[in-house]
Amino acid sequence: MTDTIETDLLALLREATGAGTPPGPAVRSELLQLDDPKTALRAGKILEGLPPEGGELRPVRVGILATCTIGSYPHLLRTALVGTGALPTLEPGTYGMFEISLATAAFAENGDPDVVSCLLDESYFLPEEWDATDVPALEEHLATRLADLRQLLRTSNELSSATLLVHTLPLPARVGDSIISRRARTRLAQAWHRLNADILALADDSNRIEAVDLAGALAENAVRARDDRLHAFGDLPYTDGALLVLAHEVRRFVQAKLGLSRKVLALDLDNTLWGGVLGEVGAEGVQLGGLYPGNCYQRLQRTVARLRDQGVVLALASKNDAEPVEKALTEHPEMLLRPESFSATAVNWRPKAGNLRAMADSLDLATGSFVFMDDSPFERGQVAAELPEVALVPADGDPAHLVRSLLRDGWFDVIELTATDRTRPELYRTRARRNEFSGGFGSSEEYLHALGLELTAAEATAYSVPRIAQLAARTNQFNLTGIRYDEPATAAMSTDPAHLVAAFSVRDRFGDEGITGAAWVERGADTWRVANMVLSCRVLGRGVELAIAGWLADRARTAGAATLQGRFVPSGRNGVAGEFWTKAGFTPTEGDGVFELDLTTGDGPTPAWINVVEIEGSRASS
User: Fold this and answer.
1) CA distance 245 to 412
2) Quick one: DSSP state of residue 287?
3) Which NCBIfam families match (predicted)?
């Protein structure tokens, strides 16, 4: 960024905080692109003045524990988190109290934070005095300290539900270079790599321990990791540049945890997925494969194909004539993305913002779930002006940087890949066929009967808990109370006799949608209370939510309960669910947003066109 742009950005942040409003999507996008730690630090200090009500920003509490002085880290982390759409409350721990804070979960005195970022430096693992001629003894010490850290994390897990986030460490040159034997120095490097591998493996111990690879990220970023003077003067082992790299690694995790990642990648063609302009050079003349720059475009296509294999929905947004595009995608021998790779296509000469909006409608997704990659600053600018919630990826400049530009912000990161994620692209292609099918019926109910809808209900298992937690994090429209139970909380409730956690799958004549709904229920002797219920927007409008309410009513009635109770808490984004409980036959009570269904009279609200199937499965403890 130029100095002028950075000055303008800081002015916009001051204006937003002064008005008590969060920065808009365009400003947040600029925050994510900051690579100058000084500007990111200034931004973080300004953003400290954000009001606790963040509007469209997602609240998150982040504790910070450190084996050293944290320095600018909270401000840099705040900048990164606001950039991704979060409203962070940062809670630094006391200096010098890292181990005791973990051992006693002192960070949870005011309730569990969502995440605790553990800022580690080499002082935790290396003794003050060590023998450069006895590397095996140093290896043993590293292993012992890693075991100590593992035990602290496990103890903390027993006392708190917060997710603990650790990171790998670069080996300081002052340590490695102090060993003059090349063989011994190599052995120390091996030991340090094993230490980092073991730190990453800590995430295997618990679903409430996560790890990021700071050492690897620093190797990919042109920043100086250490400032010896600051380290000696203030116990600051890392430069602000290195801390900004760590902040973005933590931001990517929080982004995924909060469900702020994107689902759709919309791509331009000319000078994006291939080099050259198709209308000028023809399919045979585009640059794709072979030597530079064609190999860069093919590398991008290979990366995009990998994203699709992991569940990212691909869309095509190109100003071109449809016929030559179809021919190029079908016939070019170096093409890795074929027409069937895309779940939605808009190849025409209309404005791309309108095309993105139309494709979002056809996919039943919000435009805020889109990432748009295009080489034209004009096209990106028009989309930014009309759809500021769309994440933009520039594809102009040297094509050698295309893959890095697409992946650097981690827009598609998820905590864990589920079976539904992997099948998502085909699910959305099926949706287009379903929409075409709906045009031949005289009424919506006639169409719904013809679909052959089937709802499968099952108690949560160890296999379905990750998908259920993912739904909680990412569902905004049909989210009745806004309570986002994460994976540890969902797993705990699923094995608690006082609760029921259920997953709901939907299929029809066009295919299986997978797990698209979930409910968290408190089971009382006389009253069952729905703590929250979420449903993917891609199955709204079919009565699935009513069938879920009907199934819950049947389960509660069978268990001997007389009342099923539900709540609705408006969020500003879940208006589509505002009348759900009354449509399901529930009656408002005197409690704010509380509704009740008398289970002693009448039938449940399951629509006649939905067949409900219940799977008698084991619970998540199995």
Assistant:
1) 18
2) B
3) FkbH, HAD-SF-IIIC
Give the closest residue to 597 by CA, choosing from 536, 541, 554, 539: 554
Per-residue model confidence as pLDDT tens digits over 183-217: 999 999 999 999 999 999 999 999 899 999 999 99
75-112 pLDDT, tens digit per residue, is 999 999 999 999 999 999 999 999 999 999 999 999 99
* Four-way CATH pick for 443-615: 3.30.360.10, 3.40.630.30, 3.90.170.10, 3.30.450.20: 3.40.630.30
Q: How many CB atoms lie within 10 A of CB 522?
A: 15
**What residue has token string 């729905």?**
530
- Strand, helix or coil for residue 323: helix
**Domains 57-257 and 264-407 equal at CATH topology level:** yes
- What is the reported pLDDT for 442? 47
| Pair 209, 253: CB distance under 8 Å | no
In our burial notation (b when 16+ CB lie closer than 10 A, e otherwise), range 294-304 reads bbbbbbbbebb
Cis peptide before 293, with omega less than 30 degrees from 0?
A: yes
CATH 3.40.50.300 holds for 264-407 = no
Please report which helix (H) or strand (E) contains residue 354, including its range: helix 352-363
CA end-to-end span of the chain, whole Å?
A: 53
The predicted pLDDT at position 435 comes to 57
CA–CA dist 74, 209 (Å, integer) = 20
Q: In the 8-state DSSP scheme, what is residue 320?
A: S
Among residues 19, 90, 25, which one has the least CA distance to residue 59? 90
Cα–Cα distance, 561 to 498 (Å, whole number):
13
Nearest by Cα to 605 from 575, 566, 560, 571: 566
Q: Is 111 left (phi over 0), alpha (psi -120 to 50) or beta?
A: left
Q: Which helix (H) or strand (E) holds 348?
A: strand 344-348
Q: What is the DSSP letter of 170?
A: P
How far is residue 193's CA from residue 169's CA, in Å, rounded to a whole number?
Answer: 9
Homologous superfamily assigned to 57-257: SGNH hydrolase (3.40.50.1110)
Count Cβ neighbours within 10 Å for each residue of 254-267 and write b for 16 or more, e otherwise.
Answer: bbbbbbbbbbbbbb
What are the tens digits of pLDDT across the range 263-303? 999 999 999 999 999 999 999 999 999 999 999 999 999 99
Domain map (residue ranges) of the chain: 57-257, 264-407, 443-615
Q: Which structure tokens are listed for 577?
A: 């669910």
Whole-structure pTM over 0.85, yes or no? no
Which uninterrupted H or E stretch holds 86?
strand 86-92
Query: Shortest CA distance to 372 belongs to which of 342, 355, 392, 395?
Result: 392
Q: Can you tell me the distance from the alpha carbon of 13 to that of 420, in angstroms, rounded to the nearest whole number?
A: 39
Exposure string for 158-184, b = 16+ CB within 10 A, e = fewer: eebbbbbbbbbbbbbeebeeebeeeeb
